[in-house]
Design brief:
The complex is a heterodimer of chains A (299) and B (144). With 299 residues, chain A is of the alpha/beta class. Helices cover 28% and strands 12% of the residues of chain A. Chain B is mainly α and 144 residues long. In chain B, 50% of the residues lie in helices and 11% in strands. The chains are: A alpha/beta (299), B mainly alpha (144). Chain B: Pfam families: SufE (PF02657).
Chain lengths: 299, 144
């Protein structure tokens, strides 16, 4: 049971307008049958100090990752998680969060691994909702658990592993980290904790496009023309390109994956979630330091 | 972790966390978050005194005073960073009023003993480890 799409003019310019909803659209539809609103934040307690009425919380650290292996949930675990949040396979899921929807986009990407069809982002996320003075509550959502089918995760379409990236070298790569991480001055985002990588720099030939460039100052996505100017004109991406995006652990690059796939319509975009914490510690993979993209290593 | 070095209040806090189910530990952390005292006014006008904790994802600043042989710890973090505020509050409540040596003796892995790895994630707990290390360094600099 899918909830009608947001017909906003701004979204119509994007390749897949059905992937976004506006704060206004959401405010008018809270509580509508078939709609589940999900908050996904960097700060694990942010939901508790106030969230959109009826929204459930999904935490990327503690709920989307396997607790032991560095991997995402299995089909069984994902089914149990979504069922417990009251999300059915045919639910319309609208995800929002802090920091320009950084973690919300990550959650959306994980939902995509399991082929959840109707999953959308709230344009502007948590900050815009609050800035507009819209309603918040601290009352936890009342959830009626439902059955979610066990669907095997598909890692072949939107996810890239290290071996895939090695084979991909020569095709477009987007490094969405900060300029300091790209050049090799540091291995972690400014003001973020060290997550452990033994080498600094970037994957040879990767273009540097910090993820937040896709966001306007109010946290909404930039209009289509501005996004085209960045990713097509500046970086040189073309329609049929196969593209891999990466960051440090795959969360910031989920945001860029969303932009390239759903807003700009590139059809073969993968997110390398191993990202720099894997690449920067792997043995004998090529690395480039400095501001230039660098040359492909001889093979 | 060597328990003998742990100040009473920090030991109590740890026991309180460990007595709870994992899910309820978040609620306790939220309570701590709400209890973080406002910065005294004399520091509000002197942001240069406050040291930023780079290990934390959210902006959190702290400042240590040693007065009459007692440590006084001040910390501030935005309302939108409740986890970070909670970590700071645990340390403010647990360390304020202790002697410098007592603070220096707090085991560096105290944050890992609170049972928050599962509830909050080990990565986030590292922010608290960074705070504790910076507090100890400031105490040492101010003449333990």
């Amino acid at each position: 049971m899918s909830v009608a799409f947001d017909p906003a003019e701004k979204f119509a310019e994007y390749a897949h307008p059905e992937r976004l909803v506006s704060t206004e659209w959401l405010a008018e539809r809270l509580g509508e049958p078939g709609l589940v609103v999900v908050e996904s934040d960097e700060d694990v307690l942010l939901y508790e100090i106030g969230h959109i009425p009826g929204a459930v919380k999904i935490d990327w650290h503690t709920e989307l990752n396997d607790p032991v292996v560095r991997d995402y949930l299995s089909g069984e675990q994902f089914a149990a998680l979504l069922g417990s949040k009251g999300i059915a396979r045919d639910s319309t899921v609208v995800i929002y969060g802090d920091k320009n929807n950084w973690w919300a986009a990550y959650a959306l990407w994980v939902f995509t691994l399991f082929g959840h069809e109707d999953v959308r982002l709230l344009d502007g996320g948590r900050d815009l909702w609050i800035a507009e003075g819209r309603e918040l509550t601290t009352a936890p959502a009342e959830v009626t658990p439902v059955e979610y089918p066990v669907v095997e995760r598909d890692d072949t379409v939107v996810r890239a592993f290290k071996e895939d990236v090695l084979a991909h070298l020569g095709k477009p790569l987007i490094d969405v980290r900060s300029p300091e991480e790209y050049s090799g001055e540091r291995t972690t985002a400014p003001a973020y904790p060290e997550e452990g990588a033994l080498r600094a720099g970037h994957i040879p030939t990767a273009a540097s496009v910090p993820w937040a460039r896709a966001a306007a100052s109010d946290g909404t996505f930039r209009p289509r023309a501005e996004l085209d100017a960045i990713y097509r004109d500046e970086v040189g991406l073309e329609d049929d390109d196969e593209i891999v995006a990466y960051c440090r652990i795959g969360e910031r690059s989920s945001h860029t994956w969303f932009v390239l796939t759903h807003l700009l319509g590139f059809e073969q975009v993968r997110n390398y979630d191993g990202s720099w914490t894997e690449w920067g510690s792997a043995v004998r993979v090529p690395i480039v330091t400095g501001e230039a993209r660098g040359e492909l290593p001889a093979r | 972790m060597d328990d003998t070095a742990l100040p009473d209040r920090l030991a109590e806090t740890r026991d309180d966390f460990l007595a709870l189910e994992v899910k309820d530990r978040l609620q306790l952390l939220l309570e701590f978050s709400n209890e973080l005292p406002e910065l005294p006014e004399r520091y509000a006008d002197h942001p240069e005194l406050l040291e930023r904790v780079e290990e934390c994802q959210s902006p959190v600043y702290l400042f240590v005073e040693v007065d009459d042989g007692r440590v006084h710890l001040h910390a501030t973090a935005p309302r939108e960073s409740p986890t970070t505020r909670g970590f700071a509050s645990i340390l403010v409540q647990g360390l304020d009023g202790l002697t410098p040596q007592k603070v220096l003796d707090v085991p560096a892995d105290y944050p890992q003993s609170l049972g928050l790895g599962q509830a909050v994630s080990p990565l986030r707990v590292r922010g608290m480890t960074g705070m504790l290390a910076r507090i100890k360094r400031q105490v040492a600099e101010r003449g333990a």
